Amino acid sequence: MKRISMDESGAFIERFTLAPAVSGVLDGLTFAVKDLIDVAGYRTGCGNPDWRKQHPPATVNAVCVEQLLAAGAICSGKTITDEMAFSLLGENHFYGTPLNPRAPDRVPGGSSCGSASATACGLVDFALGTDTGGSVRIPASNCGIYGMRPTHGRISVAGVNPLSPSMDTVGILASSAQTLVRAMSVLLALPVSQPQKPDRVFIIREAFELCDPDVSETMKEPLELIREFFHNKVHEISMREIDQQSESGLLYDWYEIYRVMQRAESESCLGSWVAATNPEFGPLIDESFQLARNLDRNLIKANWELREKYYRLMNSFLGSKDLICIPTAPAYAPLKGSLIKRESSPGGYYARTLSLTSVAGVARLPQTSIPIETPDSPPIGISFIGRSDEDAFLLSVIGSLPGFSFQR
Amino acid sequence: MKRISMDESGAFIERFTLAPAVSGVLDGLTFAVKDLIDVAGYRTGCGNPDWRKQHPPATVNAVCVEQLLAAGAICSGKTITDEMAFSLLGENHFYGTPLNPRAPDRVPGGSSCGSASATACGLVDFALGTDTGGSVRIPASNCGIYGMRPTHGRISVAGVNPLSPSMDTVGILASSAQTLVRAMSVLLALPVSQPQKPDRVFIIREAFELCDPDVSETMKEPLELIREFFHNKVHEISMREIDQQSESGLLYDWYEIYRVMQRAESESCLGSWVAATNPEFGPLIDESFQLARNLDRNLIKANWELREKYYRLMNSFLGSKDLICIPTAPAYAPLKGSLIKRESSPGGYYARTLSLTSVAGVARLPQTSIPIETPDSPPIGISFIGRSDEDAFLLSVIGSLPGFSFQR
After folding, report:
1. What's the first-to-final CA gap in chain A, in angstroms?
2. Are A187 and A155 contacting, i.e. CB atoms less than 8 angstroms apart?
3. Are B6-187 and B200-405 equal in CATH topology?
4. Which of A98, A235, A249, A394 is the most exposed place for a label (fewest CB within 10 A)?
5. What is the pLDDT of residues A310-319, one digit of tens each?
6. Facing B158 at nearest CB: one of A269, A272, A274
7. Which residues have CB under 8 Å from A385's CB, separation 6+?
């Protein structure tokens, strides 16, 4: 592979080297930090120039950064994020679009776009991202790398700028399964785990039905491999078997809950800053803030009830050694500059993508995206979701999977 | 009981009435909101005049406030908090000490001091508080009312100023078990539950050994009642049966983890604001910020590992229908003005109190404090702690308990 320079990647907003004080299980590995996460002495810009100007430098490293440094990893700098962690595209109006090295005409995906780019370009071994509605998983899928969102609440978000606290998580983007497992195990404070096999793997029919035809085609081989590898543990099911009250079985219902909660909470986190200082945003992000501001807040209570219902449903359906398998994204990364306006139809890119990512977001579940490598198509990811709090089990399965690289 | 006016209570920092738009399960109930939580149009002062001045009014209600209003409850105003939610005393240097009506010479307890006072004074039916290290449970104990901290992450903290995100929770202070159950059920989006009985109730020996002699004496009757009520389900155990690797079995070990995490995270949340604006604090809070600033951050990784170990220990020890029983506090509320300096010895008020409250804080467990009413001593609470995510079960037991009122 051609070596890509930092400048070519456009992934970093600030470069520096923080050497670890001690040696540990991450010795020799380098990592980058999404610019939504504090590094002592630097401003956390959150992808927006006005935010950067108005907020003082962080006095200390975020807890997750301290954990990685204390495990021996070397920090290489801070990476571009979509403004305030909104957007799944990774096209920052002010700071540019980090390179997606495996599909240079396509977006890297957001909001952890710089972290995904830096990792995919081989500039770091792994990177810290955040994931509220897909911001680690989607760039991992787009850039052909590993990405994991943990169970909500299991990795400290202290020193991480909030977007929607009930769904915000710190996650990892990594170039290999082994690196992902090592870095996540540090953050989750997990003991070293043995390879494990699941009791059941549920392939969700409605999730695969959301895919573009070309993506469906690409998913066939990995699905075959999954069926071979897990053999008689694999069950193809409908969402209606999880939610027996649902008439539609549609994942779009999850997206609708996600949407209300994310708007309700992001307005709480960022609305008064916007109202008081009137910062400049790129057009798409401006629209996101308007949508949050205009939310009918009478919807909050009912949607919180639905959220908790779905959370309980998932945790009663899934056993501790069960996994769900879905596509990470329903489509290849969009071409750069192709999504100027957020379309709201159920068939649009945003709605279908968030229908997939909202399952883990709404139900607080851990999810890992695994890259599918084929010689003739852009990268795309396939995901395993575990039961809430079963991050260790999910990682032990991921660490023992053969991978999905198909050379012809 | 003599009627106490709003002015006499000193509980409120702002009074107003927000009528609910709809009717619901909380119809007719009034509630107050700790001034760490957003109400649209008002500044969230966090108990500190400089913070209040420097931050714009909230644009929207916090999610928890929306939920209560949408269930028909009436909001009566915002209540005094200890500065930035630090301190267990409830003596705000700038805004005064809200009245503890059942022990007027004693502190109400903090940091949800105004919420506890307003509830105990009968000015509202219940109040929103926040609890990181005891800030709902301790004022509930001191003021002779009910208080609950939920499982971490189950009630939205959007619109709530953070202190230590991995332990911050929104909780309720209430004048009766029934009101507590109703309000918590709305926030947790729980279906109405039937009364249930626990499989096992573990009375933790080391927790009761932390009590002052007079408190131990007061605990005797309620413990007898608990033994009668739950009969052969009650087991008196040592912490060593939960943590078999622990040599000491001391709850002080939990406090040490709590202390590192709380300082690490609060510096992330508030440190850069302090460094950039040099706000004025009361002496005790100033000391808290200094302690956070001076934390050796190399301790973070190891203490996060201990935290997760204790979390896993608790969740493997406790079944879903098991409860732990401990005193809420080891001592009656301190006399007003008696704790000028934070003492750091293991036998001091802060260390013993936080040793008890850190169990739920560190292990993310739900805890309810129940008032013990005796004619001849100040109020004190006894607590039940449930397994993580078993808030519904804990509430169903609390709702069916006879209460601990001893008239002689």
Report:
1. 18
2. yes
3. yes
4. A235
5. 999 999 999 9
6. A269
7. A323, A324, A325, A326, A359, A360, A365, A366, A367, A394
**CA–CA distance, B38 with B12 (Å, rounded to integer):** 15
Nearest-neighbour CA in chain B from A62: distance (Å):
6
Residue A257, token pair as written in the block? 């809950």
ipTM computed for the complex = 0.97
- Residues of B in Cβ contact (< 8 Å) with A293: 59
Whether domain B6-187 has CATH 3.40.30.10: the reply is no
Please say if the pLDDT value at position A8 is more than 70: yes
Look at B293 and A166 and tell me if their CB atoms are within 8 Å: no
pLDDT tens digit string along B85-122? 999 999 999 999 999 999 999 999 999 999 999 999 99
With beta carbons less than 8 A apart as the criterion, state whether B362 and B246 touch: no
Share of chain A above pLDDT 70, in %: 98
- Cα A291 from chain centre: 22
DSSP B149: E
Determine phi and psi for B117, rounding to 5 degrees: -65, -45
C-beta separation of A43 from A55 below 8 A: yes
How far is A338 from chain B, CA to nearest CA, in Å?
A: 33
Asked if pLDDT for residue B1 goes beyond 60, the answer is: no
CB-based contact A3:A121 (threshold 8 Å):
no
A34 is catalytic: yes
H or E element: which one contains A370? strand A367-373
Cβ neighbours of A291 in B, within 8 Å: none
Which one-letter amino acid corresponds to residue B93?
Answer: H
The b-or-e profile of A251-289 (16+ CB within 10 A means b, else e) is: bbbbbbbbbbbbbbbbbbbbbbbbbeeebebbebbbebb
Is it true that domain B200-405 has CATH number 3.30.420.10?
no
Q: How far apart are CA A240 and CA A253, in angstroms?
A: 12
Q: What is the pLDDT of residues A343-389, one digit of tens each?
A: 667 789 999 999 999 999 999 999 999 999 998 899 999 999 999 99
Residues in chain A: 408
Interatomic CA distance for residues B222 and B236, integer angstroms: 14
Concatenate the DSSP letters of all residues of A372-400 into one string: EE-TTS--EEEEEEE-TT-HHHHHHHHHH
* Beta-bridge partner residues of A146: A174
Q: And the tokens for B344?
A: 């750091």
Q: B58: which chain A residues are within 8 Å (Cβ-Cβ)? A: 268, 271-272
Cβ pair B264:A158 closer than 8 A: yes
Determine whether A76 is an active site residue.
Answer: no
> A7-187 belongs to which homologous superfamily?
Amidase signature (AS) domain (3.90.1300.10)
Pairing of strands B367-373, B146-149: antiparallel
Nearest residue in chain A measured CA to CA from B265: A158
Q: Give me the residue spans of the domains in chain A.
A: 7-187, 200-405
User: DSSP of B392-408, one letter per residue?
Assistant: HHHHHHHHH---EE---
Interface contact flag, A60 B22, Cβ < 8 Å: no
Q: How far apart are CA A113 and CA A120, in angstroms?
A: 10
| Least Cα separation, residue B71 to chain A (angstroms) | 8
Sign of the C-alpha dihedral, residues A343, A347, A351, A353? negative
Residue B363 dihedral angles phi and psi, to the nearest 5°: -95, 10
Residue the block writes with tokens 């949407």: A259
Which of A296, A300, A306 to mutate to test binding with chain B, by most B CBs within 10 Å of its CB? A300
Active site residue A164: no
